[in-house]
Design brief:
The radius of gyration is 18 Å and the shape is elongated. Residues 133-138 have low confidence and may be disordered. It has a single domain (6-126), classed as CBS-domain (Roll), CATH 3.10.580.10. The strands form two sheets. A three-stranded antiparallel sheet has the order 1-6-5. It has helices at residues 6-9, 23-30, 52-60, 71-74, 88-98, 117-127, and strands spanning 11-12, 16-18, 37-42, 45-51, 102-107, 110-116. It has 138 residues and is of the alpha+beta class.
Length: 138
Amino acid sequence: MSAGRVRDAMIPEPLTLDVSASAQEAGQHLVEPDVRAVYVIDGGRFAGVLTRKTLVERVVAAGRDPREAPLGQIVEPPNWTIDPELPLDEAFAQLEEWDAERVPVVEDGLLVGVLSRAVLQRRLAEDEPPAELDQQQV
């Protein structure tokens, strides 16, 4: 069992935009291949997540002008958040249960990081003790 906490494995300081930023600003970030979501804050507090799918559904398909659509009107509340002090093995179980690839890490309402299942799996594998050799094999 790992003694680490979510704080030890999270990606700190994820890309954020304020609720007043436009959908166009978010879209400029979301075109980058390694950016899958923009995290939206309101006065420093975590407000939600904007993905490419949400941008298409709530702005493009709805016929809204992306320059005039503030993120506060289109952002989705997160399906889940996770506490930075949660033990890593418990966090992994939660991500598995939720079938989530990434989960915002929120502390006292503030977004402090993002926990990625892939990063967490690598971290847990590093923490595993080496397998003991069978005495008969030595």
